[in-house]
Design goal:
The chain is α/β, with parallel strands linked by helices and about 280 residues long. The chain is built from nine helices and ten strands.
Length: about 280
Amino acid sequence: MSVRTPLVSGLVSITFRNLNPTEIIELVQRAELEVIEWGGDVHVPHGDLARARDVRARTRDAGLAVAAYGSYYRAAYSEQAQAEGHDAIEFMRVLETAVMLGAPAIRVWAGRQGSADAEAAGTRSRVVEDLVRIAELAAGAGVQVATEFHGGTLTDTNESARRLFFEEAIHPNLYSYWQPPVGMSEADCLAGLRAMAPKLSHLHVFQWSRREGGGTDAYPLSEGVGRWQEFLSVAAAAPATALTKQRAAMLEFVPGGTAESFLREARTLRGLLAAL
């Protein structure tokens, strides 16, 4: 019988890039959520160990937990970025920051091309190799590596994600976040989530729809209660991961980007989790 991992509620800090860590912590407390994924671009920059130490202490002292370090490391690209005129991100600096932050997991990106483009460019294998490499490095520090489930990467389709995790990048410390791909049917979302269950890390929670002519619109989570009940039920039944004691469902990019909207969304999320 598999051990299940409790689902806890939280916030992805980059939802409020305009707020500082103290303000975010206070907002999460007001919302009565439990954990925070701290972003690596603004709130806890890659390599800023002093900031990581400070944010870890502030989070803990507020009675909250760090769910993950939301890095912007792109497998097979970030360490070579300088040669292409971009700022390089070394994974060891990301890992050191995550350890100082007390993060049990690091969110990374499975390359910077969608699966079709990666196939055409012949770059898929490079991404696979780097994901395995960084998963092994992080395992030595007791930190999980989990990819974003996102367009423009090798997790852009259900089939590509399945192939990546179950045929190619085989490592016991490599997992994936999950979020509903915008525009995908509920049935296909559920199929993809169920397929990823053995490798499921955390979830990013939002209610978006694709706008006619391009772009996306954000709606209150209450408008998607039915489908999110299904998604969270599947996630709650997924087996526990090796290094995380909890699996988090974290709000991201709330409608309007306001504190009031976030507090409303948090109430909906808490209700969904309480009903599991």
